[in-house]
Design a protein that fits this description.
The relative contact order is 0.16. This protein is an alpha+beta fold and 140 residues long. A hairpin with a 5-residue loop joins β4 (122-125) and β5. The model is unreliable at 1-29 (pLDDT under 50). Helix content is 29%, strand content 24%. The chain has five helices and five strands, in the order αβααββααββ. It has a five-stranded antiparallel sheet with strand order 1-2-3-5-4, with helices on one face.
């Protein structure tokens, strides 16, 4: 069998779709990490529990504050519960708050959004528009 480009994805005699240089193309993610998920009741007192939950899992000074603002944004939208996800990979920490329904613009970019964007390296709306996420960088 012949190969169009031996080191490329279009190689016809390879058992896998990706070439040996996939690390250079961005398809490889050599970092390992952890992920935690927890649903919280939609009550203001739970914001404290969210901050403690995050602080107990990652050692970043801004992570509890960012998680708090994400939680409050979903809580303010009237969601009956808020699903929180905390993930780490390499030098990244991602915090996501998710509700059951798409967020109105006021809650997805409300007053807490300035705090989130000020502390996080990147942030945004989830693909289904039901939640918000923020990513922090660590110095390790």
């Amino acid at each position: 069998m012949t190969s169009a480009n031996p080191g490329d994805i279009v190689s016809t005699d390879k058992p896998f779709l990706y070439s040996e240089n996939n690390g250079f193309r961005g398809t490889a993610m050599p970092e390992t990490g952890y992920s935690w998920q927890k649903p919280f009741k939609a009550e203001p007192i739970e914001a404290r529990h969210v901050r403690l939950w995050v602080a107990g899992r990652v050692r970043h000074p801004d992570a509890p504050a960012v998680a708090n603002e994400l939680y409050v944004a979903i809580l303010s939208s009237g969601a009956p519960a808020v699903g929180m996800t905390l993930s780490t990979a390499g030098q990244r920490i991602r915090i996501t708050a998710l509700g059951p329904d798409p967020l109105p613009l006021l809650y997805s970019h409300g007053p807490g959004w300035q705090i989130i964007t000020g502390l996080a390296s990147t942030s945004g709306l989830t693909a289904d528009e039901c939640g918000l996420w923020a990513q922090l960088r660590t110095s390790r």
